[in-house]
Amino acid sequence: MHDVLTDQTITHVLVPGTFDPITFGHIDVVRRARRLFPHVTVAVAESLGKNGTGPTFSLQDRVSLAREALGDIDGVEVRPFTGLLVDFANEVGAGAVVKGLRAMTDFEYELQQADLNYRLDPGVESIFVMSSPEYGYLSSSVVRQIASFGGDVSEFVPDNVVKALKERFKC
């Protein structure tokens, strides 16, 4: 568990998520976190129980897609994790979690998660950034749904993800 020190500067943060798949909205949050902190770890969660069915892409595939999509950003690494987020933060030496917020519904969910994380480890800060207006509507689930019907998702995700979705949904 972290010691809660008021004079400790945070230099390493996590941007966690399922990233199923990574979108331009996720990339925006990562870039913004990187502007604020010198070291950002994108923490790709296993999330076996997501939406009652599990993720569309395997953990290995989601990590690979994220690494390729974020490869041009210095100071950013992508790592898979299982278990509690605060445990992973301690494992990698991250002092905070950065989450993007799109709407009030995101805020309510993320506040609940932040409160729980604080109870588990008060030394891991929670930091929220508002989504850019151009990505306020964007979610991985919407991208998956559009792709599953053969729709064009190229304005929502990087080229490597477009290709992976076409292969996954055979369109």
UniProtKB/TrEMBL annotation:
Cofactor needs: Mg(2+)
Chief place where the protein resides: cytoplasm
Site annotation Transition state stabilizer: residues: 26
UniProt-listed Enzyme Commission number(s): 2.7.7.3
Pathway the protein contributes to: Cofactor biosynthesis; coenzyme A biosynthesis; CoA from (R)-pantothenate: step 4/5
Catalytic function, reaction form: (R)-4'-phosphopantetheine + ATP + H(+) = 3'-dephospho-CoA + diphosphate
SUPFAM superfamilies associated with the record: Nucleotidylyl transferase
Cellular localisation: Cytoplasm
Similarity comment text for this entry: Belongs to the bacterial CoaD family.
Protein name stated in the entry: Phosphopantetheine adenylyltransferase
Organism: Enorma phocaeensis
